[in-house]
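Subject: Sanity check before I submit

Could someone independently write out the structure tokens for this chain? I want to compare against mine line by line before I put it in a report. The sequence has 116 residues.
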Amino acid sequence: QVQLVESGGGLVQAGGSLRLSCAASGHTGSSSIMAWFRQAPGKERDFVASIDWNSYYADSVKGRFTISRDNAKNTVYLQMNNLKPEDTAIYYCALRPNRASGYDYWGQGTQVTVSS
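---
Independent answer below. Compare away.
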């Protein structure tokens, strides 16, 4: 069983930065894909970024957010720069065991609030 624990959320002013972390425990597998999603109040959960051998981003965060991964620590990070009020959401970490599966594992979420 895989467990994901996010940390690093908080309150920041527009233009500021935050770094989210997601620590994975259990058998994550060498082919796993890790990702960040977010859900704003009253909206659906949206893809933000993912990483395997490459990294992928939603258009809304390209150039501002960077996803990275430390396989030795089984941890994925999301560096968020130039934050905007519309980035306010609960951010969730997720894991796909491999490309043939969906995001089977999710963290509990961490709140990010960007004030204007």
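---
OP: Matches mine. For the report I'm noting this point. The CA atoms of residues 90 and 111 lie 4 Å apart.
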